What does this fold into?
Amino acid sequence: MPARSNSWLSRRRSKRRSCAATTQLQIVLPVLGVNAVRVPVPKPASGAPEADDISPIFRLRHAKSGVDAQAQQIDGEFTMLAGSTVVPSWHGVGKAASTRKAYTSYRIQHEQLVANGSIMVDGDRGRLTRNVVFPSPSTAGAVALGRSCNGRREWIAPDGTTFGDWESRGVE
It folds into this structure.
């Protein structure tokens, strides 16, 4: 009797390894600043009931500086979306030492995004060329506006709900 081939077993192991590798990449790549595997959650078709856990697309606007940024919570992370218009350079200045330290951090982050091509500067405007994950809505807002901001209040959903109110819904 001929020996049974173990090819089905090796294919099964290979598939399991591939799934594990994909999961690891989805964790590691965003940490390294590569967000290609993160995509905005598609909105349900009109007329379909909207799930409570799907984030709306929030907007941050500031007419004077020309900022018009969009963001969405994707996989639990606050992500500013490609195409958002932001300030071309950081210009906030703090008076207190702690404020200066925070502003320096925001300025460095903005400069890194310009340097790595995530923000393309064109005259007096900057535009996000890819989705960028931020540790908080306030950090995203600060990078977009070039000054500090309370992201929980300043990012607004199409229905007028602030990000903070949306995030706190059902928590009482």
About this structure: Residues 7-31 form the longest helix (25 residues). The radius of gyration is 21 Å. The chain has five helices and seven strands. The longest strand covers residues 67-74.
